[in-house]
Amino acid sequence: MTANTNAVALVGCTGLVGSQILAALQGVSKKPTIHAIARRELPSPSSSPPSTVKAVVEADSSKWPRLFNGLTPPPKAFLSALGTTRGQAGSFEAQRAIDYDLNLSLARAAKESGVETYVLISSAGVSTTAPFPYPKMKAELEEAIKGLDFPYTVIVKPGLLVGKRSDTRLAEAPLRYIAKGMGLVSKTWLTDWWAQDVDVIGRAAVGAGIECMEGRREKGIWIVDQKEIIRIGRKESKDNP
User: Fold this and answer.
1) pLDDT digits (tens, 9 = 90+) for 1-31
2) Under 8 Å CB-to-CB from 112, ≥6 apart: which residues?
3) pLDDT tens per residue, range 37-86
4) Of 47, 79, 145, 197, which sees the most CB atoms within 10 A?
5) At residue 181, what are phi and psi to the nearest 5 degrees?
6) How many Cβ atoms are within 10 Å of 215's Cβ, its own excluded?
7) Which residues contact 151 (CB under 8 A, 6 or more apart)?
């Protein structure tokens, strides 16, 4: 990958997709400074000079939005893979405080600090009229982010995430095993339309963000659906084996 930028910011960098975004950012050839905002210290990067990853550690996530104005060099792009589960949070209200409220507060702070490219990891199949609270909340966040009018807004909408989770999601586990099995048979048509590997999603998020940062996309809102995740993510993999 190549990019004419000197800094990006990332939240959710210890999660399933966020960790892959962090790895993909470390593969950017011009080595931008990566402000990785997290509650705890990050593992030492194995393939990147330590100076490219600046861990911004703050255990109180409610303070994260206030960190943006102090990031040096100031980020030109902000990527969010922030999210939790109802089980981890303890209730849906607590989950919404992170998945919606904190995400939106961070996006507003990023806009106010001068960020031009915003990349959100969302989900396929969400709707503001959904009968279930989680997909409705995800769709409401998308709409709120669009309303902030970043010069470039990228919303990445994967299907089922295929990768090793540190947390247990019993409802998803059987589907994930099926997706992995199908993927061993055919990567091209058995799974791509409903499940994507997290490393592909991570590379797609970074690749889409860089296209915007380099001015290779028109300004506005770009919805990166599952088909485009595969196209961008696998292209980045070939370009950066």
Assistant:
1) 444 458 999 999 999 999 999 999 998 887 8
2) 68
3) 999 988 765 554 555 899 999 999 999 999 999 999 999 999 999 999 99
4) 79
5) -65, -45
6) 10
7) 116, 117, 219
